[in-house]
Design goal:
Blueprint: H1 13-29, H2 39-47, H3 50-56, H4 70-94, E1 99-103, H5 110-113, E2 121-126, H6 128-140, E3 148-153, H7 160-166, E4 175-179, H8 188-200, E5 207-213, H9 218-231, H10 235-241, H11 250-256, E6 259-265, H12 266-272, E7 291-298
Parallel strand pairs: 1-2, 1-4, 2-3, 4-5
Antiparallel strand pairs: 5-7, 6-7
């Protein structure tokens, strides 16, 4: 259960969800024709210890990520989401943007696996323990950043805009903002503050990509919690970590503040990629029909 001022590292609390997602990306990358490939995902998972290595090596008897129902659907969803944000970065670079900010970067390895021009700068914001884990895992694997990568160790509940500026961020330059897998872990008011900060730090032609999840009905939430408590392996914790409350819809918020915004339902995006979306199943903690992807451009 979330509490005000709670803290975490890569294996606890909100941080542990990054490992769960990285494992999902690692499995999805093994598909014969993956929607997206993240070779560093396995690096992070193996660096987390024997339990996670056993999962990747098929030595864990039961786990949500290897479940034919939840696991297959979750991997497809993660692959589609990864592709969407990859394409967002590539489009921003093609448009001449050279400043990228990844909010709550977790185990994002885009600075290492995407192609970047020499003058591109990627800022990664997250808590120090998460950034430290990532840096050590990548160093041990010999990973080399393809962009000028700048870590900004800060909790997004703190004054992260100041920390970002102190790290060299230039608000007079167009910026590409990424908020992937973040909003459900923020209270509604904190989400609005995040959007307000992005707006205040963005000049004309800046862009933002946001993943958002609609509020679950009380019945669906209770069903999910009940099933997750029995299933364990990360699902129960995920349900306890999110803030399931009414919040402003991202595309509408940005449009109301002078941005050109476009919303894409994740199921529609999966279909556009030639795949079949997972069947809605609240008991499996995967309801992709409630998830949408938003891209906004500052006009």
């Amino acid at each position: 259960m979330r509490t005000e001022g709670d803290s975490w590292d890569i294996t606890s609390g909100v941080g542990s969800t990054a490992l769960f997602v990285a494992a999902g990306r690692a499995f999805a990358s093994r598909e014969p024709d993956p929607l997206a490939s993240d070779p560093f995902a396995e690096t992070f998972v193996r660096a987390a210890g024997a339990e996670w290595e056993d999962l990747l090596d098929g030595l864990v008897a039961e786990h949500p990520l290897t479940d034919p129902g939840f696991g297959a659907g979750f991997q497809l969803y993660l692959a589609a989401r990864t592709r969407y944000f990859d394409a967002f970065c590539e489009s921003a670079i093609e448009a001449g943007i050279r400043q990228v900010v990844i909010l709550a970067s977790g185990l994002d390895a885009r600075a290492y696996r995407l192609s970047w021009p020499d003058d591109a700068v990627v800022y990664e914001l997250d808590r120090a323990p998460v950034l430290d884990f990532k840096a050590k895992a990548l160093a041990a694997a010999g990973g080399m950043s393809r962009a000028r990568r700048r870590e900004v160790a800060v909790d997004l509940r703190e004054d992260w805009p100041r920390a970002l500026r102190d790290g060299g961020f230039d608000r007079t330059r167009p910026t590409a903002w990424l908020a992937e897998g973040l909003l459900p872990y923020l209270p509604a008011a904190a989400q609005d503050r995040l959007f307000e900060s992005i707006d205040s730090l963005s000049c004309r032609d800046s862009r933002a990509a946001v993943e958002q999840t609609e509020m679950l009905s009380p019945a669906a939430l209770e069903e999910m919690r009940s099933y997750a408590d029995q299933a364990g392996h990360g699902r129960a914790e995920w349900v306890q970590l999110i803030y399931n409350e009414p919040r402003n819809e991202a595309a509408a918020w940005f449009a109301d503040h002078g941005w050109d915004a476009e919303r894409t339902e994740v199921d529609a995006y999966i279909r556009a990629l030639g795949r079949t979306p997972p069947a809605p199943d609240p008991s499996a903690s995967l309801v992709t029909s409630l998830i949408s992807l938003v891209t906004a451009t500052r006009s």
